[in-house]
Amino acid sequence: MVPLQLLDDVVGLAVVALVFLVGLAFFAAILYTEHRKEMKLIETGQYPESRESGTWVLAAGLLLLALGLADLLRAVWTGTVPEEGLTLTFLGVAALVYFAFRRRMAGEAGDGTDEPADTDS
After folding, report:
1. Secondary structure of 29-52 in HEC code, one letter for each residue
2. pLDDT value at position 106?
3. Cα separation of 121 and 22, whole Å?
4. 24-43: string of b/e by CB count within 10 Å (b at 16+)?
5. What is the pLDDT of residues 1-11, one digit of tens each?
6. What value does the mean pLDDT of the chain take?
7. CA proximity to 68, closest of 83, 97, 88, 82
């Protein structure tokens, strides 16, 4: 009876591994085609220079702040010590302050947009 159980476990593991590998290959194919498309656009000169809006900093800051405050609230509610809540809260606040700072600097630059200036280049 034991060899049949072992065979079932091996077949189950093989199916899971196959599904994982097919998914990984599909993901790699999508990334490769997107890369080739962008390279072709760059070669032909049709690739526009993108200006980073910085809204990802706002989204990340709000998410970190929400997660941190949720952990702090849970800790207060249950009477335990907060785990990562304080760190996440401060990271979220720092990201929001950074976003506000970049937005203000873009406004002072006088370009007439509300988007932050691209200082990465």
Report:
1. HHHHHHHHHHHHHHHHCCCCCCCC
2. 78
3. 38
4. eeeeeeeeeeeeeeeeeeee
5. 456 677 778 88
6. 83
7. 88
Q: Cβ atoms within 10 A of the Cβ of 54, count?
A: 19
Q: Where are the domains of the chain?
A: 1-48, 55-109
CA separation for the pair 14, 83 (Å, rounded): 38
Between CA 58 and CA 62, with CA 91 as vertex, the angle to 5 degrees is: 30
* pLDDT of 94 over the 90 cut: yes
Type of residue at 117: A
Question: How many other CB atoms sit within 10 Å of the CB of residue 116?
Answer: 24
